[in-house]
Amino acid sequence: xxxxxxxxxxxxxxxxxxxxxxxxxxxxxxxxxxxxxxxxxxxxxxxxxxxxxxxxxxxxxxxxxxxx
Length: 68
Known about the structure:
By secondary structure, this protein is mainly α. The chain has 4 helices and no strands.
């Protein structure tokens, strides 16, 4: 995982890797640390695949929204 502390979340935000969602650094850290407890298997793969698919499919609307 990329984040272990709130400072890691802030660094990812500063680099533009994490954007939006209206969550505080603490809430974002809690969100990402929940995935660390998932056992590697079908459900884990499905969650990560869903996140990746969303990121790939939505990049253009996200960029347009960020620009406007």
